[in-house]
Amino acid sequence: MFFGYNTNGFADHDLFDAVEILAELGYRGVAITIDRGVLSPLEERHGEQIGRLGEMLELYEMQSVIETGARYLLDPWRKHEPTLISAVPDLRIKFYRYAIECARLLGSDCVSIWSGAIRDGITEAQAFERLAARLPGILDFAAEKNVPLAFEPEPGMLIDSTAAFERLAERVAHPNLRLTLDIGHLQCQGETPIAAVIRRFAPRLANVHLDDMRRGVHEHLMFGEGEIEFPPVLHALAECGYTNGVYVELGRHSREAPEAARRAMEFFGKLGLRSWDLGLRS
Description:
alpha/beta, two-stranded antiparallel sheet, 16% strand
């Protein structure tokens, strides 16, 4: 298990400057949120970026995951649209296939995806049927590329909790369907104690997002500003044998990105994480 940081918290930085800063601060992983300026399929230079990023990750001995939560990359008018439950999901499916190819080229641990919110006047049952019908093709493509696909429950979306994910996993019984757990989302949704949830879903766990949060409020907070007690959370991950990254996700802290990343590192350093072998560099 090792400590990483999401590039959505460095939205005002050049991608390569962000990676260099994170490496200097001691992070061993980067969660790469594909967006404008960051491996964007809409920009001609994305191929050059992937090659250079791969070299940097190797140089700094950092691992990566690919995140797909950019807000307005595919539709400048509608946040996160289209999704797998949209009336016309083609652009989202194409984007997920692109993200999977990026992960293959970078040797990333997984690609993290989500369901999207219900729109277009459809029912929850109709949205679930759309998702269940469209997800297997993406899972198959990812399996062909040897890339795990980690599904994230997101407050406000169709799949908003681990219970909803479990229902999806039962319907779409695919060996490549893994789980992204956002620790803050568990607190927000009242899925506590968090350590118990981690232990329950440990066999499917491929990716972890780390942030503080309050129950009932979907707002990613700096550590110590919410309600989560982190030592039991990280102990549970260690006890379950989780070996991938725990990625800080502070997407609204870009205005103070280097300082936020430093504060996050200092917070966990004060908890004695170095003795827990989370892979923090001294």
